[in-house]
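The record is passed on directly below:
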Amino acid sequence: MVRIDRPRGTRDFLPDEMGERRSIESVFRGVVERWGYGEVKTPTFENLDLFTIKSGEGISDEIYTFMDKGERQMALRPELTAPVMRLYVESFQVSAKPCKLFYFDNCFRYERPQKGRFREFWQFGVELIGSSQPEADAEVITLAVEMLSSVGVKGELHIGDLSIIRSIIEELSPAQQSRIMRLVDKKDDAGLEYYLGEINAPSALCEKLFSLISLSGRDTLKEALKITGDLPEFDRFRRTLELLDALDVEYTVDLGIARGLDYYTGMVFEIYSNQLGAQNQICGGGSYKLTHLFGGKETPSTGFGIGFDRVMEICKPRRPKTPSLYLASFDDTRTDAMKIAKKLRKHIKVDMDVMNRRFKDQLKHANSVGSDFVLILGKNELESGKIAFKNMESGEQELLTIDEAIERVQ
């Protein structure tokens, strides 16, 4: 017989781990719903064009693509922003603004698996669509911080603004600007210097760019003004920071953040955790415009994605243990035990033997699976209308009605 293993770069989650993941997911959902966001869900696969329009043809080498039986080029989603923007164009364009959406799902990328990076991964994201105001930026950033804080993750928030960087390189071609932004995003100063030389960028431009992306800290805006002069772009960014100050959100202004994607238009932010190794970014986002690429009106948006798997590397939640009950029976009470178990399961967690074990073996099994209590249903108990209720920790045993047993376990 041939053994078939799971695909490379994927994982199986066992019951205990799934319980932990659902626990964190539930907390995240509670936070975003209290902030007024509604959940959406998009298909696991989409037309390949959805991602090449947004990220360029080169992304095809990084994702799972296939041709369906209708000879259409499809792709497993590598991220969720583009599918949600497509959904918005199809379903929400005429709705009241802003449109506040959230999602939680798996994504797929065909890359070399390594620690903390898998070919299948999970992303929890939020999109606030329809507002270009700094209040929208401040809300989204604060929500991201609040979500992570709600599960005990304290991250280091860095905020930048791409419109300030782009003001310096606006004289270059769109392709050159795009390449520069990607090099800035990778923190590849040597590669950036080489590329600027390769395209014969003016020395004044190079000097301003390197000075700007090296700025980080509370006085960053003052220093940036000396480099670029006052720009309209500063007004929105400055107001966003004022709002974050009012909301007691701790941050570092970091103009070296680029996010490396062409669709970001202004504010960008990243959150890092010192509880992770080299891959320490757990959240990233910013303001952007995408809907016009998918046939909609140009619409300002702000959003972020949280790397759920990285959050799980940090969080080991202790879920409140739900008391468990095991219903043990004999050959002549087995059918009645199944009836009673069905009634009990409307209220509490109940396990029972389905392997035709002897009574003593049922008690051993109850102990091995960690049952807190055992109900013993014999003929005498059945006739009396009461069941023997045993506390597995103390060993104490007493006769109770079914309703009394339910109250005792709950």
Observations:
- The chain has a mean pLDDT of 89.
